Automatic annotation (TrEMBL):
Lineage: Bacteria, Bacillati, Bacillota, Clostridia, Eubacteriales
Molecular function in Gene Ontology: DNA binding
Keywords for the protein's UniProt record, in alphabetical order: DNA-binding
Native species: Desulforamulus putei DSM 12395
Schlafen AlbA-2 domain: residues covered: 27-144
Protein name per its UniProtKB record: Putative DNA-binding domain-containing protein
Origin: domain of life: Bacteria
Length: 390
């Protein structure tokens, strides 16, 4: 995607806007100017995402035959423009495309600012507006146009399908069943698309040291001391657990979950069941998500990632969370009926920029796991216990 500023969005200042005036940068395939929020904002955003990406600048005066900016009077910022932009996209585009924005305040008027929005080319098109259409950019003007060419529409859907297939294949390889008979728990956070080289350069002492320090801090120095370097990253490699950090931003944690046989007193007859240590499972889940968030913040990554968990050798076992022990006392055949699970079942990418706390992701995955053990939906159940949140 062409960058008319020649510098990252985060570094933009008011002087960079005047550069667009000096260079007479016109509207077109990659750039669009608006004086204020337009009614068809969703169409503009979707068209950029469905084509080659682009920049939308709100608070610009480009009302002239050449569509070049002549000034940047800005917009009123009393009603947070970034929130307004986000809400319009969330309510009018499916799926919501990725975007990042910066509000540049006017030096002469602190109540006004220019909103600069960067919309990258989508990895998972098409993005459909609420009028049921698929909009794209064209070379003949800046206005988004509804796409009707069947060949182009097929290519958009095929692009999304191929990217999803590639990610699924990679995740399945990483989460493939282990040889051992112990209960294995695997957690993975995978940025998409693959092969982003999120941490680049990777194999430099400062980067490696920073990543190792992050991981050891989160695991409270319980990680193996042995570190194994591989072409795509490195791993803390121990007998019962392994943590991988790859240059693509992929974070994987594999560990065994302790089990304990307990006797269940039931009205009919008592019986014994092998229970998984629910605390060990929750701690492993939360720590991995937390490390992924720290890695994404460290690299400035705000894009999509896919969180996945896998449990192996759980058939006939239970989960010893005391909140749900009544389930084992009152339910016929309460043992888990699955041998191995990979969750969630579908392709469910999330935005790194919206992950304010690790529990946002961990709670969702936890609910999937608990449902596989037969518990109710647990939509109010949270991993946010004080001892786990530290």
């Amino acid at each position: 995607m062409i960058n008319p500023f020649g510098k990252p969005l985060e570094q933009l200042e008011e002087a960079d806007l005047h550069k667009l005036i000096e260079e007479e940068t016109p509207e077109g395939l990659y750039v669009e100017y608006k004086e204020d929020f337009p009614r068809h904002l969703a169409k503009i955003v979707a068209s950029f995402a469905n084509t080659f990406g682009g920049w939308l600048i709100i608070g610009a005066d480009a009302r002239n035959p050449r569509n070049v900016p002549t000034s940047f009077p800005g917009i009123d910022i009393s009603n947070d423009p970034k929130d307004r932009f986000r809400n319009i996209c969330q309510g009018n585009i499916t799926p919501v495309p990725l975007f990042s924005s910066k509000l540049i305040l006017k030096a002469e008027d602190a109540k006004r600012g220019v909103l600069v929005v960067k919309i990258p080319e989508s990895t998972y098109p098409p993005h459909i507006t609420n009028d049921g259409r698929i909009y794209r950019r064209n070379m003949e003007g800046s206005d988004p146009v509804p796409e009707t060419d069947r060949h182009i529409l097929d290519r958009l859907f095929e692009k999304s399908r191929l990217n999803k297939t590639e990610v699924k294949a990679f995740i399945n390889r990483k989460l493939q069943k282990s040889d051992q008979d112990k209960v294995m728990f695997k957690v993975m956070c995978c940025p998409v698309p693959l092969n982003l080289k999120l941490i680049d350069p990777f194999f430099v002492p400062e980067r490696i040291s920073r990543l190792k320090k992050m991981a050891r801090s989160i695991w409270k120095d319980t990680l193996p001391h042995i570190i194994r370097f591989e072409p795509e990253g490195f791993a803390f490699d121990g007998e019962n657990h392994r943590l991988e950090i790859l240059r693509s931003g992929v974070v994987c944690y594999f560990c065994t979950i302790p089990t304990c046989v307990k006797k269940i007193e039931r009205p009919s007859e008592p019986f014994t069941l092998d229970f998984l240590d629910y605390r060990a499972l929750q701690v492993a889940l939360l720590r991995t998500i937390k490390l992924a968030r720290e890695v994404y913040r460290f690299t400035g990554y705000m894009g999509l990632f896919v969180p996945k968990v896998a449990l192996e050798n759980i058939a006939g076992k239970g989960l010893d969370d005391p909140k749900f022990f009544h389930f084992y006392k009152n339910t016929p055949g309460p043992q888990c009926s699955y041998s191995d699970i990979i969750l969630p079942y579908g392709f469910s990418p999330m935005e790194a920029k919206t992950m304010e706390t690790p529990r946002q992701v961990a709670d969702i995955l936890l609910r999937y796991i608990y449902r596989c053990f037969g518990f109710e939906a647990l939509d109010t159940h949270s991993i946010a216990r004080a001892e786990l949140a530290r």
